[in-house]
Amino acid sequence: MEFRRVLIVEGASDRQRLQKVLAEQVEIICTNGTVSPYRIEEMLMPYEDCELFVFFDADESGEKIRTLFKRAYPEAIHLYTERVYKQVETTPYRVLASILLAENFEIHPEFLL
Q: How many other CB atoms are found less than 10 A from the CB of residue 56?
């Protein structure tokens, strides 16, 4: 079976922003807001053999979803944006690149300057 990395984000704008920075094919799944433990399990069932990365906003809703993921998938790796940026979609590209690079994602070189 092919081993894949999966990034879980809150919304489509987060996905688009991360796709610009990533220099590798990574499955990016959007929760589209509030989710239940059942919905998380259902959403991630096809990815049970993948390495999961959770990257949510640094706000109240992001922390609520993150808490659900910590309970449902304690093996998932949690990525954090700085509170000053609040949202993944407003985090500067170079900061996103640094966060992803720390977890050995391949990044487009122009975002590393």
A: 25
